[in-house]
Amino acid sequence: MSKIITDEKRIDEVLERGTVDVLVKKHLKEKMLSGKRLKIKMGIDPTGSFLHLGHAVILRKLKNFQELGHQVIFLIGDFTAKIGDPTGRSSERKPLTEEEIKDNMQNYKKQAGKILDMNNVDVRYNSEWLGELTLKDTIMLTSKITYAQMAQRKSFKNRIKKDIDLSIQEFLYPAMQGYDSVILKADVELGGTDQKFNLLMGRHLQKRYDQSPQDIITCPLLIGLDGTEKMSKSLGNYIALTEKAETMHGKIMSIPDDLMKNYFELCTEISLTEIEKIMQTENPRDAKMRLAFEIVKIFHGEDEAKKAQEYFVNTFSKKEIPDEVVEFKTKVGENILDFLVACGGATSKSDARRKIEQNGVSIDKSKISDIEYNLSPIDDGKVVKVGKKFFVKIVL
Known about the structure:
The protein is α/β, with parallel strands linked by helices. It has 18 helices and eleven strands.
């Protein structure tokens, strides 16, 4: 195993950069300075087929501990996924099937490898122990937690107040996640700020099982492409780790300017000093180009990051048509409004009309201004451009 690194400057950066809560910071720092190899746990339920940049924020913090020589535990909640994490939910989450969970687990491990050295990661599944609990075991576990403790959870409190159903199954979820820490004897657990209640439950249960309580680190929730809500699959405002380099670069270039500093700090390896310099001396467009390049480089390598940047400049900055454009089959006489809706260039005919009226639609660089325009044989093979980023080739 690798040597434990106890450099105080590096430890301070791990505990301070991209963190919100560090409990208990003084205690954790002393343990890290002591040279003891710590068990660092991060759990994730396989509720989807891919991970996004929001997940990567915590995975990168896990990587920081791995680089310092500590034992990293990537816990896949294949059992708790069947219960459904109630965090931030105003209604009960639908549990997944065995097949869905199995497929998602394989995808998660592969994608986590884009950040972590998986050869030095202890991958565990909580079905190993939670699936073996008898009814007696479960009752003994729940006896260590009070209703008052659970009812203090904000989302639970709101649902109780509004008389919205709250199942015992959902009450069990934090207990199960906390019990994971007991079984793994975790020294530290990482999670987003929305997971703080569950992480604290791990501390509570470890005390009740006569273990030293884990320290916890919460990381901020990455704001998504819409600039308001946290990055989420369900909201569609995400950048998946599996995105092609060009797509990832383009999505990053679309984030609001006021999110750039946050993305630099949470999603890149650039020093905080350098980030400040970039934000103060470079114009927003150039700063965002640097941000996109650095993030794409992490997941696709420097060569692909350069290609993605060149593609973006040629396609969007120079307003050129990309080399590869998706083809869309239609018929002679198709009205332009109907075509735009059918090919995905507009969400509705009124949206298509608005885009045409705002000079946002062209065919082979010729602006379309007539909403009564119908496609003719001369349009076959031409490229329709909608806005700055949507291209489709007409195939009649």
